[in-house]
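Here comes just one.
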Amino acid sequence: MKLYSPWEKAFNKLLTPFEQFLHAQTTTGLVLMGTTVLALILANSPLSEIYSDFFHITIDFNVGSWKLSHSIHHWINDGLMAIFFFMIGLEIKREVLVGELSNIKIAILPILSAIGGMVFPAMIYLAFNMGQEGSAGWGIPMATDIAFAISVLVLLGKRVPPSLVAFLVALAIVDDLGAVLVIAIFYTEQIHMLPLFLSGVSFLILVLFNLFGIRMILPYFIVGLFMWFFMLESGVHATIAGVISAMTIPSKPRRTALDFSKHTKNLLDEYDSYPVGVDNTLHERQKAILTNIKYRINSIGTPAAKLEHDLHLPVALVVIPLFAFANAGIAIDFNSISGTIGHPISLGIIAGLILGKVVGIFGVAWIAIKLKIASLPQNSTISQVFGVAFLGGIGFTMSIFVADLAFMDNEKLIFNAKVGILIASLFAGLFGYFWLKYVSDNTNI
């Protein structure tokens, strides 16, 4: 038996883009869990003041009389998270072009379920908070944390069919799109027209780059950076620039797959025709052939696919963990925890993420299947869809993000919201996991 070092195993293992995406989301979920626990420990330890003060440190950028000044917390939420939203934009575009959302017969179930999973949680939240100070937080329980939800499914291994994983991914992508629209439309307090116009001009330039066949990343990055800045100054949340700019990145290869295969085979035949040199050295012509093959590999790929692949690890290991570390640390007073949980904001979020998501995702899916508008994911059961609906109640990243926007600068309301998000996400994740592992195979709903 031949032994491989760890990197040789990785080299010999072929992963599809979808499998790479799942691995990246699982990594994100595990690291996210660790940083969340660390943030909670620090916020409830003697180091809590240092932890809190650190994120209020101001970082300035000055160019002549122009100045951009924000706290570290603000730079993370408005700056680094723009990269996360850029990734969301790339994922949405991929799913629509070649993924689960590209086939309407398959896509109809996750699309309808995602809509139900956004509408019902918002309605339930408003039932607790209508006319009260927390009414603006109706968008908080609408979100699903794709990294955590997928991590739970991956932990279940072969007990969950691949089609069910694809269903959850498609659902979460539609959910992310809905959250982006909600943030852009409903959580923008004041709009400054000139910066918004300049942001639109930047977007138009990016579109022209695409139409003129520019495939280098640098021009898109430079104009995208200006677009982010103008969006920040306009009053529309700056992270929206990440999603919009991602839509302009080229997603079509320069060459067709058939052309690539035909010419590469010819080059490999020529490569094999040269004798192996001393110490396995290559003939000069072989080196030229390898360079040409590398060029052809790059031409069959797309800038969008390359960016999504290259950004997965930085987003998984840096951006999302930093966001969790900066936002999940809440100081818990266990003497008053029952009062906090009983607050309308906390109750609305808990009920929305648990009851609302289950009613919205599972209820709409069940009706769509019964009416034959859609069909069950292949080799799955309606009971497994019920378990996945609970996993949809893991809000976390996007829910915390929306909470900060909904209750901007009101620490008390943000605290209540975060307590509700953490409790609901923990319960939804655990219940969904145990249901799918121990109950769903033997239950008919």
User: Anything to note?
Assistant: The domain at 15-182+302-442 is CATH 1.20.1530.10 (Na+/H+ antiporter like fold).
